[in-house]
Amino acid sequence: HILLRHNSCTSQLDRGKPKPTRTAGEAEELLLRLLPELALGGAAAFTARCKKDSDCDTNLRGGDLAGDLGWLDRDPAKNRKVPASVVRAAFTLAVGQLSDIVASERGVHLLLRTA
Hints:
There is one protein chain. This protein has helices at 24-53, 57-61, 84-90, and strands at residues 2-4, 102-104, 107-110. The chain is mainly alpha-helical. The protein has a three-stranded antiparallel sheet with strand order 1-3-2. The chain is globular, with a radius of gyration of 13 Å.
């Protein structure tokens, strides 16, 4: 998953992190520009782009699991660190499918379902 935070984010999970300077519109525009590359490049391109651009916690920690949301429960309440809109979007995707842009209190997201 690729997350781009923006200056309108309201999530309490991001307290203590530097406030992004990009606007929500700028974050969405960046993701829109990535869509063709990601749609053609598959999982390898998605992972590479996540490691380069994502503000998600797994990417910021580094390592091979950059962008990995792990296993999600269909009940958004059971995925406390993953916004409900992201959980709902994840379960609409087929394996290998790339999502549209998903907005949440943490920023804007792109998802690639791998399992």
